[in-house]
Structures are given as structure tokens and as C-alpha cells.
Amino acid sequence: MHFGFTEEQQAFGSLARKVATDISPASDSESDRFQVGPDAQKVLSETGLLGLLIPEDQGGSGATLIEGAIFAEELGRALAPASVASSALISPAALPLLCDVSTRNEVATAIAQGQFCSVVVGSDLTWPPRGEGFAWGWQPDAIVLEPDARGLRPNREPKCTATATQDLTLRIASVGPLTLSTDDLADSEIAQHFQATANVIASCLLLGGMRAALELAVAYAKEREQFGAKIGGFQAIKHICADMLVDVESSHSIAYGAAAMLTHSSEPLTAIRSAAIAKSWCGDAAVRVCESAIQVYGGIGFTWECPVHRYLRSALALRSSFMNTAQSMDFLSRLDQWT
Amino acid sequence: MDLNDSPEEAQFRADLRAWLEANAPREAPPSNPEEQRSAIVAWHRKLNEAGYTGLSWPIEVGGKGLGPLEEAILVQEVERLGVSSGLNYGFIARAMLLFATPEQQRRYLPGLLSGSEFWCQGFSEPDAGSDLASLRTRAVADPTIGETGGYRITGQKTWTSGAQFADLCLCLVRTGEIEDRHRGISAVIIDMQSPGIDVRPIRTIRGDTEFCEVFFEGTPVPNENLVGKPGEGWNYALVTLTYERGPADIGFVSKYLSMVQRLRKEAALRGLGTDNAVQREISRVAAGVEVLRLHVLRSLSMRLERAPGAEGSVDKLLMARVEQDLLHVAMDLLGSEALVDDRGRWFSDYLYSRAATIYGGSAQIQRNVLAERCLGLPR
Q1: pTM (two decimals)
Q2: What is the pLDDT of residue A30?
Q3: pLDDT reported for residue A139
Q4: Which of A28, A134, A189, B70 is packed most tightly, with the most Cβ within 10 A?
């Protein structure tokens, strides 16, 4: 048993941090945080990170989900456009749901070459979608993976109406009412594996965001003075920060633990269960940590200028995405009844 | 990052399972505390004869030279069968391994291994709980004790688990001045048969007597029972306490796992097996137990690379949160039933869970530790 990063993974983490920072809009930029501009696209194509999870014979790096999780954490920390995680980390996991092998290979190769890609979720952001469909993490020219009679199909010229969300990094695009029911799809083993992967990636995006919010709050508490002392010296503030740390470190354990189980475990259901747990735990923890960070900042935390609300917005959107907390609890109840 | 057993770990687990299959006690543990204790001792001796004690101790002192992961596998496998992992003297042994002289190790380690000597730990005092450095049990030098002189101990310890059964006590005493705070503290081994010791069990909120008050009145302790140097006891205590987190934590996880399974059964028995609200609550605590499991595995894995430190307070706070949450859900589910008939021991376990944020350093002290030592906030 080994629960830790190899030296290669640590080096990859440094690279991922640099790339995530480089492709994210400056922290004071207010609009277009969802958009991957030409400079960012250049960085992505030079580093080949969009193809991180695409197999080598299709032009990607063939990395494991553990590297994917590391990249996701850094994207979350940098508040990078959601379309990057959507294309590089979530869409590749959905490709096995494409029925036709040659189409599957085409889309994989396109992603590895820098094509943006987006999976259709429901109006509540969860997967599988019901009612009206929305391309999650959409960006102009993205291929949209939408429901088909037997799984998913790529739509290269989708008729999309883009909508901003309260999460400044996330844009979704309506693809209109869905005519096909995807409920049957959800119980298949490949669909469950896709959902588990999306859960782990979202968990790591949440982890990166909450770590950043904790660091911001702690830095502020070491600087801000009231009553003639740094507020970080008061137990009321210390205990808030310590509880944030418990949330962050426990989230790290469950998010990477689930990633490792999905990568190596011989018991797929156990791994899928842990991924659902990761999603609910990290979602709730991230919202709590961001709310606490606002509290530590006091009045400043309530301003647009203070960066914490951006993390809170992202945490709320990610908590709802793919599988929300209530859904993961119900999923767990069903799984545990069987066993 | 791979959470599966390595081939060596898998072999160790398979051998252990086979041995447990043939040797683990099948009958439920007795409810009478005295009988319970002798059952644990008998089981500990059986484990020792089969070579399943002192797994992580060096071979030179009678250990097996293995690591914390093998210890965790042992705890996991025995707890899975609902059996105790024997006498838990892990952290006392750690103090002896780190700080005792070779003579002291030769004298005391075999008894710890075989379970022939019972130990207790004399740290807390009535006026020194969270503020342990203010302890005032005095050790006054007395040249007439033993062959080379020693100390006379006078004072009071409290919350001393198992003192009523103990042969020996690893005790923190003040050899310096009270104003010296942590610098005037030393660690000594006290023979509990010495004169001037009075042990009085304390009745807990559950009604049982897990721990005691211990009074010392001029109790003689020879110099050779001093562990390490005089005045360095505080450092030993801190290091020993960090070893309270570790392989044994996996045992808590196994215990909580079986409690969650029992909770699902209790719900089903009451026709609530498909009640969404009830099942969601149980799933919420089941999720907490899985998070704790993976967090403990991560901490164990870090243990292979470096000694434990302040980050162990995360484990303690998380464990307390999960346990108290679980027992709250249980009490909500059972309602007044648990108050009338506690055959399921839910009420008793609920009461016990209130200690989770108090023992081994209160939750507030753990938060101070994290804030100051992990996050670098001002003291």
C-alpha cells in the first residue's frame, strides 16, 4: 500500500501548477474567466496537456487518472476556465460511451490535438441529463457529446445557446430538449465508470479551490490587526482555520484515494462508491471552507474585490455538477443495500 | 499511489487470516470488566506466542522488524472478526524504544510484548488537563532510596486508564520548579506495588470504571527508573502522544464500519429500509467513515517516510467528528428505544462518543496545534 506521489508525479504537479496559472485570466480580471484565449490555447497545445488522458496511440500522453487528478487540483486552485477540465479530463472518460469505435478514435485524436470538448448534462448540471440538455464547460467550437439511442454521439456543429453561470469559470450552452431517455444508460458499467471519473475530477477541482481559499484566509489572518494584535492569534480565528484544514486534508485523502482505487482496484464497485463519496464530501467541504474564508476576511470578504467569492461560486457549481450530494447519498444507500 | 497490498503485505495478510481462522476466539467477549480484561490478556498471550506482537519493533529487542502497515493489517484483520487486537501499549512501547536505556529496554520490553506486565500512563492531573505543563506531582531527590539514590513522588494523577490493574506506570513528575513549566518535568517508571500509592476508580457517565485517580504519598522511585535525562520528560511526552495516532486508528475505522452496517439493519428492522431520509442520513455517516479510512491510510503511508507530527491532529478531529456524527444518527433513529432497552449498546456507545473530543487532547487543543504548528498562525 502506498498513498503518496512518486517523484515524477511531484514534478508533473509543478508543471501542472505553472500551466494552470498561465492559462487562467489574471486574478483581477472580472469577465471572460470561462474563455480560453489564444495565448492560453498556445500554452495548452505546446504542453499537450489537453491530451493528458488520451492513449499514446491516439496522440495523447496516456497518463493515469492520478495525473488527471493532480492537473484538476491545479486547475481548481488557479480558477482556470472549466472548459479545460471538461476537454482534458472529463470528456476523455466519456469516450467509451461513444458507440462507434472509429468515431471514438477521431474525437480522442482531436482532443489530443487541442480540440475542446464538452459533455451534455441536465439543467441541474447532473449526469445523465434529463429534460433540457446543457453542454458543461462549453466554449466556442467545442465538440458536444450528446445523448444518442445507445450512448453518446459527438456533435461537431451543435446549435448551442451559451449561458453564463454564477461560477465565473463555467459557461454552459443549451442544446435544447432531449428526446432520448438516458436513464437506461446510467446503470451500465461504462456509464458508472464515466460518472465515477467525473466525480473524482470534480472532487479535485473542488480540492484545489478550497486549498486556495484556506491559504488566502490564513495569509490575511497573519496580516490583519485588530485590538493591537494579528487576528490569527485569536482562538476564534484559529479554530475556524483549523476546521478548514481538516476539511481540506480529508478532501485530499478521499479525492486521491478514490482516484487511486479507480486506477488500481480489482473491485470496481468499491472504487465507484468511493468516488461518489469523494464528490459529496469535497462538495460540502469546499462550500464550508469558502464560507469560512469569507468570515475570516470579515467585511473585505463580502466585497467583489476579495477573490474568495470566486472560489465559493465555483465550489457551489461543482458541488451540483455530475452527481450532487443528495444523489450520491441515494447512490450509496442503493449500493450498501445490495452488499 | 496504489492502495492495494504489496505482494509481501498480501502474504502477511493471508498468513494472518489463516492463523486467525484457526485461533481467534469465537465466543462474544464477556460483559464483566474483570473477565473482559482476562479474556484480552489471554488473547494477547496467544498473539504473542504466534509472533503477532511487537511487529514494528526492532528485531534486537524481540520485535519483528516490520512497519506500521503490517501493524495496521493486524488491527484491521482482528477487528474485522470483532476481536480485540490485544493490549494496546503501542505508544508506551514507543517511548521505551525511543528514550529508555538498553538496561531498561531489557527489563521492560519483554513484559510489554508478552502481556505479563500491565502498564498505565500517568500524565493528567486535576489541575493539569489541557495545560499539562502545569503539572505539580513532585519528585524530590532522596539519596537513601535504592543503591544509588532516587526520588520520592508526592501528588495526584487522574484519568489514568487501567491503573486498577497496572503493575507499572509511566509517569510525568516535576523534578524542577513549577515556574520552570515544561522544562522542569521528568518521566519515571513507577512500580505500582510501591508503598504510598492509592488507586481509586472513577465512575464514568456510562457507569463503568475505565480510569482512575492515583494518589502518591512519598512513593520511592530509584534513579534507574528515570527514563532519559531529568528535565526532558516533556519532550518525551509530546513525542509519545504523536504516536497515539497510527496503526491503532484503523481499528476505530473497522469499529465504525461495523456500526454503520448494524445501523442499516436497525433501520430495516423498523421498516425504514427504504425510507429515503433515514437512508440518506446513514449514507452520510457511511461516507464519513470511508473518508476517515482513506485519511488514516494516507497518514500510515506518510509514517513510512517520516516521524508523525502535528498533522496527526487532523486525524483526531476527523475521527471524533465521524464518531459523534454516527452516534447522533443512531440515537435519532432509535429514539426513546435506546433509553429503555440498551441491548444494542447504542446508548452506551453514544455516551462514550462524547469523550472523543476530550481524551488524548481536547478538540480545542487539537485546533490550536493545527493553527499554530501546521498553518503558522501566531501563538
Answers
A1: 0.96
A2: 61
A3: 92
A4: A134
d(CA A130, CA B108): 68
Partner-chain contact A249 B276, CB within 8 Å? no
| Three-state DSSP state, A147 | strand
Distance, CA of A31 to chain centre = 20
Considering chain B, what percentage of its residues have pLDDT values greater than 70? Answer: 100
In angstroms, the first-to-last Cα distance of chain A is: 25
User: Which pLDDT belongs to residue A180?
Assistant: 72
User: Which ipTM was obtained for this model?
Assistant: 0.97
Strands (E), chain B: 119-122, 138-142, 150-161, 168-174, 185-191, 197-202, 211-222, 226-227
Q: What is the pLDDT of residue A69?
A: 98
Choice among B244, B266, B281, B323 that is catalytic: B244
Q: How many CA atoms lie within 13 A of B65 on its CB side?
A: 3
Cell of A311: 472560489
DSSP letters along B331-375, please? HHHHTTHHHH--TT-HHHHHHHHGGGGTTTS-HHHHHHHIIIIIS
Residue B180: all three cell numbers together: 520552570
Which portions of chain A are predicted below pLDDT 50? Answer: none
Cβ neighbours around B297 below 10 Å, total: 22
Choose the closest CB to A280 out of B287, B292, B372: B287
> Distances in Å between the alpha carbon of B128 and those of A184, A328, B157, B159, B183?
63, 45, 9, 11, 15
The tens digit of pLDDT for each residue in A72-82 reads: 999 999 999 99
Establish whether B244 is a catalytic residue.
yes
Name the B residues in 274-333 with CB < 8 Å from any A CB.
276, 279-280, 282-284, 286-288, 290-292, 294-295, 297-298, 300-302, 305, 311, 313-314, 317-318, 321
Window B:336-365, CB contacts with A under 8 Å: 364
Is residue B182 within 8 Å of residue B112, measured between CB atoms?
A: no
Please give the torsion angle defined by the CA atoms of residues A164, A166, A167 and A171, in that order, rounded to the nearest 10 degrees: -10
pLDDT value for A338:
66
Question: Nearest CA to CA, how far is B368 from chain A (Å)?
Answer: 7
In sequence order, what DSSP letters do the residues of A3-60 get, joined into one string? Answer: -S--HHHHHHHHHHHHHHHHHSPPTT--S-TT---HHHHHHHHHHTGGGTTS-GGGTS
Closest CA to B187 of B149, B221, B143, B217: B221
Residue of A nearest to B8 (CA): A1
Taking the C-alpha atoms of residue A211 and residue A249, their distance in angstroms, rounded to an integer, is: 9
**C-alpha to C-alpha distance for B149 and B116, rounded to whole angstroms:** 28
User: Which three cell numbers, joined as nine digits, stand for B252?
Assistant: 476505530
- Tens digits of residue pLDDT in B19-64: 999 999 888 777 777 788 888 889 999 999 999 999 999 999 999 9
- CA-nearest of B238, B379, B362 to B309 is B238
